[in-house]
């Protein structure tokens, strides 16, 4: 079931009303059935997969907690990791690895399974695995109520596209009593509204031009490729952060605060800062469960560099079983390694007064450079094949000089993007608007600030946003990009 | 918090009151947007203008012309006598022809002949793909929709709801958005954009910015023809749902004692050259088996006059005027009714203003009694074929 579907418009109010009407002791049952219903509305049989991850990680938590410490516990944790990751490996990576092997040996050694990828498998697998690892490290008390635990793994607002929650944040909230609080419900609705504006009003309208160009990138050069790539950067941000806002809004109405997943990423002045602001729940997951266990930065420089690259290659693979994602991860990993290697040198250079730029210039320049690099990397994230990605990367400036001031080229490019001139101007203005919002601290909770405005103005803004979604959005049409991960 | 305090608090009452007020104001704004839609979209929509014009009691044709963009563009009201009514609309297929013919014959007893487009693609997948009937709910018999469209009762109900409250439909909202943006742009720049396909002073369908087919390089012409023909003749030539619709047209015509005349419209020489290599026997067999009063084949009428074409299968304004005259004289030779008299829109005059039928849009009962026994909506295999 999609948040932007008609079914969900009925589903959510029914769940919310039932939640506040039911006595507290039955609420977990309601939420659990709603969560499985939400998931199984897509492919009923994959409810078993969700159950499997819940059973495996719940049992692993109990066993690991009882195991004390030592080698036995390590074996148990290793077995739990293998058992938890097995479905992910099977559904998501088997065909990719098999295909790559077949390609390498030049024959069909491994047959393709062609399995349908279960929606959100990477999210709930990581959420369950995170719990086991936290219990093993004694960062999380073991959960002994299977119903409560399964609800933690399957909680529907964040089930299919995160944020990947930690047990210490979500489990206690799921167990706590939450009554009806009007202000909290309004706040949740505001956050949902903002999420829908991002998704239906911005992301879905940018997807048309992006898809038109990326469907056959070799037919384009220069400006068209640059614009499509920049549009994609904002499409994926609005799509994913829009989903997160809707998820957080729904949970907030129930009295549950999910973690913030984005913090104005395009306002980042360095790649390190970008990763503190983009998909925060995944970045911190990799930091806590991969990077730090590998030794983090408290090891020799070559191992530190290796740790960074491992994390980003895994992050790339997490997004999709395709070499394009691997390259995307490697590019980001390479950039972070460059920061580590040249950070000290940069400081020394900056210390030479003659080379130091004034803050008013250096700041925007750093933001622009980070944005340009991140946008370049999106090429590999969006392209359908590695060949397409290299074509786009290699032709970003081809013919650019002539295209910029050629009115006929602009008209043709806009028509190719299936837009008219007005729509193109609006899409560009939305992109610029989001970018500007990311430069201002206020943007992080802009929608919550509405609560302090005078009612007539506040309501006018609400109606404007609702009508923007209704008239400019693609309701019941487009899936969220991150569902596929 | 206990159950009772959760649901009976004053907090909840305040929330519900505010929510209700928000919904009421929202509904009022929605009505406002619907009025904008009515004025700026529906009243300017080519389909509804044509339908509303046809629905006028003063329109009493003896010959009804039905087809897609070919007759819509090639036959001009400024030439056709007022006794011949061109009810064609771009993109329509045999199912839509059926709905129009049933409505026309039921409401205009003056009609004695139906001129039906029978170009070689009219029964193929190219047209079977168009299973839309939303706009046709203005006049169509729901029984016919059930029998000939790949639909179901719940889908019909949804379509009827979207017909009655157009802004419930996502597509209509997208149109409103586009028109609204154009209105804003026109307000700011003083230039209003033209529709690609518009109606002229005679309510004739015309392309904005006509091209000259002749001025194109031969290579480009061939390429365009190939693209067009590939589109039109892709897939099966004869699809069962469209064949059934065609037979139903004859059944309805027979019930009203109306003759059906088949017409193939002029196409550019390059189009004919490509088409002559194509096997269209299956379509021709279907057509031959039907009791057409006459079949008029104009495909090669302008083989030596590419200057009369706008594109491979549509005439330009000049070509359409010439063809319309020739069409009228051909018709006069084969029909027994009097087709003399002035054109509906002659001598530089303008058609009387057409006010599109206003909300609730429909002036006819939803279900019209059919003389023929109603069959089931269609077998599962038929439904699959339709899709």
Report on the architecture of this protein.
- The complex is a heterodimer of chains A (485) and B (387).
- Chain A is mainly alpha-helical and 485 residues long.
- Chain A is built from 20 helices and no strands.
- Chain A starts with 5 loop residues before the first helix and ends in a 13-residue tail after the last helix.
- The longest helix of chain B has 31 residues, at 10-40.
- With 387 residues, chain B is an alpha/beta fold.
- Chain B is built from 15 helices and nine strands.
- In chain B, helix 5 runs parallel beside helix 11 (240-255) and helix 10 crosses helix 12.
- In chain B, the strands form three sheets. Chain B has a five-stranded parallel beta sheet, covered by helices on one side.
- Chain B is globular.
- Residues 1-6 and 371-387 of chain B have low confidence and may be disordered.
- Chains A and B meet through helix 8, helix 18 and helix 20 of A and helix 1, helix 2 and helix 9 of B.
Task: Tag the structure with descriptive keywords.
heterodimer, A: about 475 residues, mainly alpha, 20 helices, about 70% helix, B: about 375 residues, alpha/beta, five-stranded parallel sheet, two-stranded antiparallel ribbon, about 45% helix
Shape of chain B: globular
State Rg of chain B.
24 Å
Q: Describe the largest sheet of chain B.
A: 5 strands, parallel
DSSP summary, beta strand count of chain A: 0
**SSE pattern of chain B, N- to C-terminal:** HHHEHEHEHHHHEEHHEHHEEEHH
Could you give the order of strands across the largest sheet of chain B?
2-1-3-6-7
**Multimeric state:** heterodimer
- Which chains make the largest contact? A-B, 30 and 28 residues
Largest sheet of chain A: none
Briefly characterize the structure.
Chain A is mainly alpha-helical and 485 residues long. Chain A is 70% helix and 0% strand. In chain B, helix 4 (69-74) links the parallel strand 1 (63-66) and strand 2 (84-86).
